[in-house]
Amino acid sequence: MAYRIGVDVGGSFTDFAVFNEADASITTLKVFSRPDAPGQEIVAGLRALADRHGIDPREVAYFTHGTTVGVNTVIQRNGHDIALFTTRNFEDVLQVARLKIPQIHNLYSRRPDPLIPRNRVFGIDERTEATGTVLKSPDPEDVAQAVAAARAAGCAGIVLAFLHSYRNPANERAVRDMIADIAPDLPVFSSAQTWPIIREYERTITAVISGYVQPRVATYLDRFEEVLRAQGVACPLHITKTNGGVMGIEQARAECVQMILSGTASGVIGAGYLAQAYGYPRVLSLDIGGTSADVAVILDGQAQYGVGEVIGDFQIHVPSVSVSSVGQGGGSVAWIDPLGILKVGPDSAGSTPGPACYGRGGTRPTITDAMAASNLIGHTPLGYGAVTVDHTAARNALAPLASRLGISVEDVASDIIAISVSSMYAEVSGLTSRFGIDPREFHLFAFGGAGAMLACFLARELNMQGVVVPPTPGVVSALGGLIADLKNDFIRTLYLDVTPAGLATLPDAVAALQTTARDWLRSQQFSGEGQIRLSADMRYAGQSYEIETPLDPADLSVQAIGAAFHAEHTRLYGHADAHAPMQLVNLRLVIAGATPKPAIREIPVATAHARPVATVAAWFDGVAHQVPVYARADLRAGHHLHAPAIIGQDDTTTVVPPGFAIAVERFGNLVITPEA
Amino acid sequence: MAIDQRNLSVLANFCGAAADAMAFTLMRTAHSAFVKETEDFSCTIVTKDGLAFANPRQFGAPWYSGIDYGPLLRMFDYAEGDICITNDPYEGHVATHTPDIHIWKPVFWQGQLACFVVGHIHNTDVGGAVPASLSRSLSEIEQEGIRIPPVKLVEGGVMNAFVARVLRTNVRMPDQNWGDLTAQIASVNIGERKIHEIIRRFGYDDFMDGVEQILDYAEAQARAILARVPDGDYFFADYADEDSVGGKPCRIALTLKVRGDEVVLDYTGSDPQLGSSLNMPTGGVERHPLVMVGLTYVLFTLDNSLLLNAGTLRPARAILPEGTVVNCQKPAAVGMRSLTCAMTQIVTVGAFVQALPDLMPAASPGGNAIMNVKTAARNGKPIMASIGPVGGGGGGTPFGDGSDGAGGATGFLRNTPIEITEAEVPIRFLRYGLEPDTGAPGKYRGGLSAVMEFHITQPETVVTARNRNRSVMPGWGVAGAQPGKVSQFIRNPGQGAQHLRNTDLVACQPDDVIRVIGPGAGGWGHPFDRDPEQVLQDVRQGYVSAASALADYGVVLAGNAIDTTATAARRATRTIPPGPYSFGAERMAFEAVWTPDRYALLTAFLASVPVGWRFFLKHRVFDAVAAAPETADLPAIFAGLRARYAL
């Protein structure tokens, strides 16, 4: 017997998903996170799994983990002091960035301070041309001086980012080797190795973030590994990745940018897997926590990818699961501006002190308080005795707003919910326009602590097909890490003309990339062949941007590649120019090694009508209703419920306003659709 | 659902989302680098009368948030499925130079007109005398490319093929224009769909009423901000170095009249319209966006929660005398109105400095050069590329240093990566970054200027630097700070350096080296009041030289530390410059000759002669005064000119 375990450590809770290989079943568990003593939540979880489910840590054959330690290091700016070596006369790359200031109408606005101040940036006398030709090789004496200066400035590592290293990394390699000779203790982060893309700022900041968080991430992972070994877990350990895959812990320790969005990405992967298994081809995932709401597009079970995901004040430019974050969560604060207009956010009470109704010291009125004041939450025990809902405290917190507006507490509560949801609407609307999709064709897949609380309100504004709430919304992220494939991205900048002569070198480049990719998969102890997806960033000569075009490795002829590009151009822009010369700028390859997937089980079929555990007076849109409250555990496949309704379970409350119909389908999902 | 203070935020969020959706669609489908890299476009939703009420929250050019499409909209009767187009700066006063192609589409609901969805893209080229259609050397609008008069491009859903063909026939890169226009159409179509969703949710009557409330809300916010500004008349003027190629200074004058919660921007005293392309085609429209940019920045800086739409500008009104550089008449060229617009922003901030000395920053210096290279590849293929803006930083503020490299009013452009340019244009960069000692010393210094230096490798290469300014008169400092440094544009720095000053076009050959340093931004507060630790930090970062630390900041450094005693001694005596501004020697010398009194006489004289004569006569008067700067008698000069030309 062997078990596979996925663990997601969040701000308040740590979720475990355990996959039993013998019967492909899934067991879930939730424990408190221990920010004060990282690692102890893992110990507690493993003990509980042993006690309650008889799972012996020695029988664990596979372990994945998602963590926010990397992203938090950037947000809190508590990474280590590191140095940056650039091409001489281009040392201001971090200060200048892409020039634009954050608030273009604000005369005070400044770009955020860089993670590496200018006095820890050192120019190296070296130069490579855009063609990859080396004009000047680095001089050991020059490099030694820079290393000595970096040491004198107290730097614990060095990032290398030279012009055109994406095309030819020779000079970065040479300097890395020189540093290895004279300062073997200093870790070196080469931009060409981190992610070799054209655009010096984007490549540099990606490598800088990777280096900046590395010491902290490595320490965290060391401790994590120690804790697991002490508990008897002997299997290889995996970390979930920014690209939605997983990788071995060794790679995570060295290439931190690959794991920096580990937590958010695995939620989307989990949602995608479930949506596909449940039969929903077009889904927006909605994960709401205390301070933010994360939304992602999922098509046929696949997350969408992009570059430029936001990490604190910066962006990273590795392929990432594309997630849009709205500054609206359960803790967002409602207030009235000097002109008497009601507003919600961007201030948040977060998880500490939290909403007033949680009784942990919060007094300002939040979205959660608006839900409580409307009597829509707090009727069934939430998980693990973590929180109880004090309805009076919620009403008290809202009362000053109500009296200033001259309306009832219930009315102001419904206004707060509407404003918050309209902010989410604005963000999701932007996301759908960016991807060119129509939300009316999509289901909203709600998970996380507060996703199901607000999902119906948002789906109503977006005229969506409906809302899907999976049986255990709290562990979707842990599950996502558990079922994610081993996955790595590769890129080579080639700048080839799409002509027979221009493409002469392409087959060799493709073969080399395939070899590198397969070597990677083997290094992850994957035994199979893996799946390879090949594509190229292409354009018509003279265009200033590229389109990613899928390529068939078996046919790399001018005709095949040209046809693929024309087709992609037509798909995106509605036209193509069959006679225009084309360029192939980058070659891209993604390799994936599939991991086993759990079976999706059906739940028992209903034999009688569902019975509410209570009926409460609650307010929707300022109107009082008698609302039945159901316990999720009582629901069976085939149950149909009328809205309004409240459905409580350990890890969330699903709130359904009037105008919807609720069906419990065979896998136990709540499927909530607008009434015709 | 009726809209009131409880749910106004909901409607405003929905409308903002609709504008965002238009911008995202544009960026996803447009073709040109101007959209993808520079974000020089707008997507706006305007009332049925033309007033902007929703803009994208993060994207696009920041100048047009309060635009009024009314004059254009009123030219047609509309039916469902119509889309109109124009780029003519002299019709409707919405387009402000020919590369900006505007389109607008009516949105109907059950047969009733609800609003319009509108927007523009700065097209890389619209034909005319020069590639990219813009140069200050052009003197009439006809040289600035094709002009499409307001016309229905799509009527009842059917494209007017003739309009499309005329456009394509008259430009240098028709596929790019066409790709961008297609994206604009996709953008307004998405906007229309989003508005339909909003009306379906709120109902037509409540939507129409709510939109007015959104405008009213922005107006009330703006009035609340203005009410905190002391009443008074605040006069300020500044000068662009040259009003034409090798020309005279160009004066922009503003009297800011604050009364309660309203403000008048009186531009009387600004120069006559010019024989170059620096003119602003405002048509005298009293809330024309081009003359309101500075005010918008000031109001938003004072309150970051300010909603930006046409309501924001309701408490303001501009006076724009006809036949002047702020309200030119046909056929004046207008392509480089951005240089002049930057000057209007600068004088607006300058006037507010008198009203709110503790809150206003030094202005960013303007003269943000847009660098282009036109050359040929080894295979002879022509190449034309924008290689990025090179300007000064943001002005020092009462609370901190100005933003480095770009900031304040000119911080909205993105640069072009060095690696992208080198991959596509046969030039090699020698340097790109920040130039030390270019941020004017102050308690809070100006942001450092950008510097760019590159090596030409191909014969017959033409480098253009649009918007060049501040080679002669620097940007000003505030509250005892120093003024900025002048900008530099040099061919072959070092021995035999050629200073190109405000030239915007230079022919180069292989081995030439071009260096551009943006104009320095002014500082805020006396440099002796700067925390010596901050000065030391600046020296360590390489932003300020040790020499400047000593001479400008009075900070004596001993090795890597501050000599506290010597610093205190050095800082004990200071000369405090009079008035809130420090202008620098060049401007002081100019204004010693061209006093406010002389300018008043000149303005009155030029206003009394026909528009076509003004630019010519201004130059004759300047020449006459230059001949005898101290004794020149303006009325006598005017009389002589009147007699000579029978005026």
UniProtKB/TrEMBL annotation, chain A:
Q: Hydantoinase A/oxoprolinase domain: which residues? A: 203-489
Gene Ontology biological process: glutathione metabolic process
Q: Cross-referenced InterPro entries, in alphabetical order?
A: ACX-like_C, ATPase_NBD, Hydant_A_N, Hydantoinase_A, Oxoprolinase-like
Q: Name one GO molecular function term.
A: 5-oxoprolinase (ATP-hydrolyzing) activity
SUPFAM superfamilies attached to this UniProt entry: Actin-like ATPase domain
What GO cellular component term, any one, is given?
A: cytosol
Q: Where is each Hydantoinase/oxoprolinase N-terminal domain found?
A: 4-181
A Pfam family annotated for this chain is: Hydantoinase_A
Q: Where is the Acetophenone carboxylase-like C-terminal domain?
A: 504-666
Stated name of the protein:
N-methylhydantoinase A
TrEMBL record, chain B:
Give the CC-aspect GO terms. cytosol
Per UniProt, residues of the Hydantoinase B/oxoprolinase domain are 4-527
Q: Which domain of life is it from?
A: Bacteria
Q: Which GO terms describe its biological process?
A: glutathione metabolic process
GO molecular function annotations of the record: 5-oxoprolinase (ATP-hydrolyzing) activity
Write down the PANTHER family for this protein, in alphabetical order: 5-OXOPROLINASE RELATED, HYPOTHETICAL 5-OXOPROLINASE (EUROFUNG)-RELATED
The protein here is known as: N-methylhydantoinase B
Native organism:
Gemmobacter megaterium
- Identify the taxonomic lineage of the organism of origin: Bacteria, Pseudomonadati, Pseudomonadota, Alphaproteobacteria, Rhodobacterales
